[in-house]
Design brief:
Elements (H helix, E strand, L loop, with lengths): L11 H4 L5 H9 L4 E6 L4 E7 L6 E7 L15 H17 L6 E3 L10 H12 L13 H5 L5 H15 L2
Parallel strand pairs: 1-4
Antiparallel strand pairs: 1-2, 2-3
Helix pairs in contact: 3-4, 3-6
Length: 166
């Protein structure tokens, strides 16, 4: 550890590897709300967050736990579940008057066609305007879960139809 009168210690969240402050500042300068996507061991969570000087304000939250209310009986963090959570988050954001957001995946490494971009596709299909390139989005078969099981595809269609009426 450094010593001396000129030594400056990094911020706690930077030292712990939890926040990239340069990336956060770029997002905040855009003036748009952030769609933060976090994937845990069992679930996908999306929060639409708006910057305020006295602290960030969460506008709406969606989770793969919410999908159970719509009849989802699949796993909570696969690509189809991530898409449905993104779709639900997009619908909820539109109800709150949010039309445009930017994607915030934190310190996670983006993989083309992965779960983070599956949530992005869900939010875009719900009607949110999010800047992105179309080649990073997963294929339609993977979004529906055809690579997993045929029962997932049927359940996916049922849940998406219920979410469209939401």
């Amino acid at each position: 550890m450094g010593e001396g009168p000129r030594y400056r210690m990094n911020l706690k969240r930077r030292r712990e590897g939890r926040t990239d402050y340069r990336q956060r500042l770029r997002m905040l300068k855009s003036g748009k709300p952030r769609a933060t996507v976090r994937i845990s061991n069992k679930h996908v969570r999306i929060q639409i967050i708006e910057y305020k000087a006295d602290g960030d304000k969460v506008i709406t939250t969606s989770s793969s736990l919410d999908l159970e209310k719509f009849g989802w009986n699949g796993y909570g963090k696969n690509i189809p579940a991530a898409y449905l959570v993104g779709y639900l988050a997009g619908k909820r954001a539109l109800k709150e008057g949010v039309k445009e957001v930017i994607l915030d995946i934190g310190l996670n490494i983006p993989h083309r066609g992965g779960r983070y971009f599956s949530t992005l596709k869900g939010m875009v299909d719900a009607g949110l305007d999010i800047p992105h390139r179309s080649e990073i989005l997963p294929d339609e078969d993977r979004i529906k879960g055809a690579h997993i099981d045929e029962n997932i595809v049927k359940n996916f269609e049922e849940v998406k139809n219920k979410l469209e009426d939401y």
